[in-house]
Amino acid sequence: MTRRLEFNIPLNRVEGDLEIRVVAEGGRIVDAWSSGTLFRGFERMLVGRSSLDGLVMTPRICGICSVTHLTAAALALDQASGVVPPPNAVRLRNVALLTETIQSDIRQSLLMYMVDFASAGFSARPWYMEARARYAPLRGERCVAAIKETKHLLEIIALIGGQWPHTSFMVPGGVVYAPPLSDLGKARHVLKAFRRWYEDSVLGCTLARWRGVDSLDALETWLDESAAHRESDLGCLLRHGRDVGLHRIGVSHGRYLSYGALSIPEDSKVTGPVVGSSFIPAGFLVDGQVRAFDQARITEDHSHAWYEDSGVPVHPMAGTTEPVASGAEGRRYSWSKAPRYDGLAAETGPLAESLMAGDPLFLDLVSRDGGSALTRQVARLVRPARQLEVLDDWLDELCDRHAEPFYRSVPSIQEGEGIGLTQAARGALGHWLRIESGRIAHYQIITPTAWNGSPRDTGGVRGAWEEALLGTPIDDPDEPLLAGMVVRSFDPCLVCTVHLVGAGRRRLMV
Amino acid sequence: MSPGGLLGADFRSGLGLPVINLAGCPCHPEVLAGTLTTLIHGHELKLDEYQRPIPWYGMLVHQGCTRNEYHEYRVEEQDFGQKGCLFFHKGCHGPLVGGPCNRLLWNRRSSKTRAGVPCFGCTNPDFPQSAPFFETQNIESVPLALPRGISRAHYLVYKTMAAAAAPERLKNRETEI
């Protein structure tokens, strides 16, 4: 008889806590449920408030990606007002969003992902002592460096928006302030120092050298080329990740979603990867084909979540957030709703962005491993390589065009609808807003973690990381390291979706 | 409001400490570190009426704002991006609430009010207020809530005279900040 185990995986080191219940048979996971256990209700707090108040309230949803929520809130209000922000405002918003995304990618990778390689469960591996020296919590040399360097990087957001986190410097029509040239110059110095650190020790090579890595073969050549490459964080992720088999697990539905982000302002030297697109293109990738993205195809399914359910999945402009906490029917198991695109579950994040941009390295990797945990995590660690140069380009343009406007006046918004779509560090983020008589009449938010950590839908289809867990080996139910690394490859941010209580480890049945 | 909040006014921790509130959304990291350091070293930590440590909450957010000269002469920001004081129209709580934002600065560089974002009063017990964030509640164009400790009559006279005395260079925003 096959041994059947049913247990909860305790996940700390996510932005919040997350509890996942799995069933394992024959040493592998055969089913999984991702559960959120506390209701937050930010959307309900916003209804009835003044039209601009989302700019102050929604950044406070999340302390690690508050600028992204601010961006989505401002974009929704731009649309509701009908005013197009001037190019300098677009540049400044983009600079802040990129800075926040880069700090998040580095902190997630070095402080929350690589740290698993320093776990006792891997103590028999030949690289264990190296991993401990580098990534042991709060003591590892790379952890300390990541904390210091990302802290400096965030000074850029303070220089243009006053503080990080929780500034509200974006408003409908642009930004509230034209930072003085002296501060833009300081921001460029901060960026230059960070870029040097990223090249020297995260990648182990220049951004230009990394751009030449356009296939799995080129990646192998790169890895063999020098000790600097092998001993960088990227080199360690590849070497240790393959050794523990991360390239063979964590494959989800193979459907990827990006809302697109970072509009390219007029007269910019920056170009997008696809003609006419934003710097991060929007799209829905299914069956190997990128389909044009249309937000009207998004719905939320409440069938397995603790919310009132009309029985039919609805578009977020019509959606509600009415908690139903009975749980008595036994089917509902999460405070996260199940968002779907064209009725389909999908994953979102840096890997989805790379595929939408037609990045040849990630197209090749996904064609070979189906989108493994390792490929997903590599996409995150190398995303700054695409972004650091455009960040400096936009700062440079802001200095050149400093005399041009940063704001176009917006009269008070009495009536209107707006949709703010952007890409957070963790993927697609959307705010859907309706204003009536100068007050917020409707606000719905779908976070990236709602996509990635979604529960089942009416058809019983699992959410992205529930699906990705299937087949993951469970060597030790008391220390399910690989299952944790599969979920963490999505960079879970449960604070955004719901706030989970860590229930600890409970063996239910052996 | 009871000084100990949910735990009650008489609450004392194992070390004999009352509830200490590190207010702010978020609390400034130096306040957190400074409070812990003070307690670890066994130094006395004086608390204000809301049980907040006085070394960081015994000052106004307004103090240290680089827009103080605009406030002084009542050169106001009526719409975003104009460079002016945000207190009179844009809902800034800087002169009303205690907090170290413009003394410590955020991320060692700046503060919201320095960058033209109003202070939303996040160290106040009533944060988030129910009134709109980006508007000052006014009577006859004078804010309903006045800077801490000032009489309405004095403030009216002072601000009328100050506005009349405002230098042209400031009214014309001939300044970098």
Summarize the structure in short.
The complex is a heterodimer of chains A (510) and B (177). Chain A is an alpha+beta fold. Helix content of chain A is 39%, strand content 17%.
CATH superfamily of chain A: Cytochrome-c3 Hydrogenase, chain B
What is the name of the CATH class of chain B? Answer: Few Secondary Structures
Total number of domains of chain A: 1
Extract low-pLDDT stretches of chain B.
Answer: none
Average of per-residue pLDDT values of chain B? 95
What is the number of domains of chain B?
1
- Our count of helices of chain A gives 19
Q: Output the number of helix runs of chain B.
A: 6
CATH topology of chain A: Cytochrome-c3 Hydrogenase, chain B
Radius of gyration from the alpha-carbon trace of chain B, in angstroms: 18 Å
- Strand-residue proportion of chain B: under 5%
Distance from first to last alpha carbon of chain B? 40 Å
Biggest sheet character of chain A: 4 strands, antiparallel
Write the element-wise H/E pattern of chain B from the N-terminal end onward. Answer: HHHHEEHH
| Helicity level of chain A | 25-40%
- How far apart the termini of chain A lie comes to 13 Å
Level of helix content of chain B? 10-25%
Low-confidence stretches of chain A: 495-510
Largest interface: A-B, 41 and 31 residues
- Lateral arrangement of strands in the main beta sheet of chain B: 1-2
Structure description:
The complex is a heterodimer of chains A (510) and B (177). Chain A is α+β, with helices and mostly antiparallel strands and 510 residues long. In chain A, 39% of the residues lie in helices and 17% in strands. Chain A has one domain: Orthogonal Bundle (Cytochrome-c3 Hydrogenase, chain B), CATH 1.10.645.10. Chain A contains 19 helices and 15 strands. In chain A, a hairpin with a 2-residue loop joins strand 7 (280-286) and strand 8. Chain B is 24% helix and 2% strand. Chain B is elongated and about 60 Å long. Chain B is mainly α and 177 residues long. Chain B has a single domain, classed as Cytochrome-c3 Hydrogenase, Chain A, domain 2. Chain B has helices at 29-40, 54-57, 68-72, 101-104, 152-165, 168-171; strands spanning 138-139, 142-143. The mean pLDDT of chain B is 95. The longest helix of chain B has 14 residues, at 152-165. The chains are: A alpha+beta (510), B mainly alpha (177).
